[in-house]
Amino acid sequence: MKILKSMTEAMLRLARSRANALLEEASLQAIFDLVKKLDHIELNVHENDYYDTSDPNNAYVVTQGQRELGIQYIDVGECEYFTMCVFVLPPAHRIPLHDHPHMSVFSKVLWGEMEIESYDLVRTMPLSPKSKPSTNGNSPLPQSKMPTLSRDRIGNSNMNNINSVLFQKPTKVEALVRPRDVDIVRSGEVRMLRQFDGNVHSFMARKWTAVFDLVIPPYNTDEGRPCHYYPSPRYEMKLDPQELSKRDQTLRLTETDCPRWYFTTRREYEGSNPGLP
Questions:
Q1: Are the beta carbons of 183 and 132 closer than 8 angstroms?
Q2: How far is the C-alpha of 30 from the C-alpha of 50, rounded, in Å?
Q3: At 115, is the secondary structure helix, strand, or coil?
Q4: Quick one: CA torsion of 270, 275, 276, 277, rounded to 10 degrees?
Q5: Under 8 Å between Cβ of 95 and 118
Q6: Is the separation of the CB atoms in 78 and 145 below 8 Å?
Q7: DSSP, res 241
Q8: Contacts for 200 with CB less than 8 Å, ≥ 6 apart
Q9: Rounded to an integer, what distance in angstroms lies between the CA atom of residue 118 and that of residue 122?
Q10: Which strands make up the sheet holding 263-267, listed edge to edge?
Q11: Residue 28 C-alpha from the chain's centroid
C-alpha cells in the first residue's frame, strides 16, 4: 500500500477512536515516521517540472514568468481532522510569518532547501484598544485554510471562503513569542511544530523547493483556529540577529493583514490517492 494512503487511514482510525487522539505524543511520533517515508514520486511533484535539473545551478534561477506565478499550492486532501498539501517555492520566495492555533504541523522538504524562521508561542491575546497594530494597508482575509489566506492569482476561492471574507469581523491579536535559531531544512528532512513549540513560523526557499505540509487539525475560524499573520522580526522588523539569538527573551508581535507580496497559484494534485472518504 502507498505511504500516503496508509498514513491517511491510520490518522482516520485514530481520530475516530477518541477526542484529540491525533495530538497525543505516541500518535505524533507514528505520524512523523510515516511523513518521513513519503516522497515526491508518490506525490508526483518533480523538480524537472520547474527547472532543467541537468545543471544544478538552475535550481537557483527563476524566470520572469515563474516569478509572476509565485508560490504554487497543491491541495493533496482535507477532512475535518487534517489538511495535506504541497507548496512549491521558487528561490528566495517566502511564506510569511504565521501561526497554527492549537495545531501540530509536519513539514517535509521533498526536494530543495529552505530556511525556517520560527518562534515558540508563549501566549496570544486580543489586541489592546490602546495598541497600534502593525499594518501594510491590506484587507483582512480571515479564511479557514492557510493557502486561501493568500492572494490566489487564478481565483479558485470556494463559497465558504468568500462568505467568511464578507461576513466575519476578525479581532486582531498580539502574540508573545520566544525566538528559535533559524533552521536550514534540506531534502528529505522533516520538521514538526506543536501547540507552543515553534508554532509561529515562516518558510524561505534557498533554491527551488517543494515542501509537503500535514496540518492537524485544519485551520477553522469557527472552531477557534484562524490563521494570524505577523511581521517577521528578521525581515519586516529588521531586528539585530544577535538579539534574536537570545533564547530567553520574549518578543511581542502584533497581527497584520495578509501581506500584498504573498500570493499562491493552484496546481491540480496528480499523485497517489490519499484515501480520504
A1: no
A2: 32
A3: strand
A4: 120
A5: no
A6: yes
A7: H
A8: 97, 98, 99, 118, 119, 120, 121, 175, 177, 230, 253
A9: 13
A10: 151-152, 263-267, 71-78, 83-89, 209-216, 104-111, 190-193
A11: 18
C-alpha to C-alpha distances, 62 to 65, 90, 91, 186, 207, nearest whole angstrom: 8, 7, 7, 19, 9
Over the stretch 174-189, which tens digit does the pLDDT of each residue have? 999 999 999 999 999 9
Amino acid letter, residue 83: T
pTM of the model: 0.85
Helix-helix angle 25-37:3-17, to 10 degrees? 170
For residue 268, report the phi and psi dihedrals to the nearest 5 degrees. -65, 140
Asked whether the CA dihedral 72, 76, 79, 80 is positive or negative, the reply is negative
Residue-wise pLDDT for 21-57, tens only, equals 999 999 999 999 999 999 999 999 999 999 999 999 9
Cell numbers linked to 223: 472552531
Phi-psi region of 137 (alpha: psi -120 to 50; beta: other; left: phi over 0): left
Q: How many CB atoms lie within 10 A of CB 125?
A: 10
